[in-house]
Amino acid sequence: MFKTSSSARHHETFYVKKKFPSQSVRAHRSIREGGFFNLRVLGSVLACTAAVGLALTALAYEPAASVPARLATSIVVNTTRQDLAATPEAATLSNLSARSFVQTGDNLMIGGFIVQGPGTKRVIIRAIGPELSQYGVPNAMADPTLELHDGTGALIGRNDNWQTTIIGGIITHDQVQDIQNSGHAPADARESAIIGDLSPGNYTAIVRGVNETTGIALVEVYDIGTDTTSILSNISTRSFVQNGDNVMIGGFIVQGTGTKRVIIRAIGPELSQYGVPTPLADPTLELHDGTGALIGFNNDWQHTVIGGIITHDQVQDIINSGHAPSDALESAIIADLPTGNYTAIVRAVNIEVGTALVEVYDLSGSQ
Fold first, then answer.
1. What is the pTM of this model?
2. Average pLDDT for residues 28-51, to the nearest whole number?
3. CA–CA gap between residue 172 and residue 166 (Å, rounded)
4. Which of 33, 96, 266, 304 is the most buried (most CB within 10 A)?
5. Stretch 276-298: mean pLDDT, rounded?
């Protein structure tokens, strides 16, 4: 998977995202012999010239009548050579999801995320319902619809049944083939999907049932772009939390190398400040790894529960993060997570019900 990006005159950046014995990269334009270019290999930049370039195993030139020779539109990169032992890409959050019981009125499912960085981020957002019944989920929503809103609250895209594109906002052409090509086409025609090239900012995905129907649904955001200059960060989901199978489940993936430092929060009482009716009075928080194992638990953030990845009192760390919950009955966990899949589950203490918010904030670089 490659991308080329033009910069200043006679400059080009070649991106190599995966490591193979030999790779071919195609430039958007030619480069003068002796001109500079950058080779970005697995997140690190190596400066090269068209005349030399340790990164190149083969160079080809095309003659020009009145200008110096130029680098042809293809170069071959050997990513196994010692001189390309670049620092791997830092860990990032990707592929976000949340599952809950979707009702009507104020008790819809609302998923939020941030695109952070200078470039745009290509994503596919899905609202899944009928497919969940294959996995033994009771009361799966029969026909979920999907809305995408930007940071101002404006509706910028919507869908009801992914095989029928609704033109409007950021959706300017039929998306059915793009959805199929993404590898994330929903399994059921009644499920919804939107592909968007999103500028940096805050976004909200809202899942509703057609004709005010209810049921358990899943909202997902997949990063399907090749641009590594922007990332998904600071994810959240708000929904009505009940008991049994109707808890709120938020999923995310840590991708890349190294670890990702995050704070995960379960918010309830604070929501009353924003006019949310029936907020969950006392939410608890569980963190599970990709095997399903419980690796962290909290009930009331000012009281750390030691166990799993939580090895010391976290109260001061939570305060220092700048994301301490405003109510002592809300829950939080700080974790340094290696790459893999993770699930945060919000439940009510005893048999309470109410609206809650689960959030994952990226703390890397802020500590």
1. 0.72
2. 40
3. 9
4. 266
5. 95
